[in-house]
Amino acid sequence: MAGKNLKRVVRKATAAPAAEKDTKRCINLVVNEQPGRTVCIAGSFNNWQPEKKMTDKNGDGVYRCQLRLAPGNYQYKLVVDGQWRLDADNPNLAPNEFGSCNNVLVVEAK
Known about the structure:
The protein is an all-beta fold. It has strands at 25-32, 39-43, 52-54, 62-69, 72-80, 83-85, 93-95, 101-107.
């Protein structure tokens, strides 16, 4: 095939579509309770399952957890030793379908 015109095909590499920017934020939640309690948080961000346990590393009743949430409003309650209750340190409330209230956590965009 020497001497024949060979057509060279060059394929352009196309950039993969940009991944959607991760807009989730790390939210540190701090709750003051009695030392030695079991404190969990349940809300609209985890289908109201009280599986997210808050920790009191110093044994002083200051319980902490970190949530990774997209911007928006989330309702939640604390579950302390199996009892559902409001977070007394958060005055933001919304009524729920059970005739009581839930706390509201507002996550701002970056």
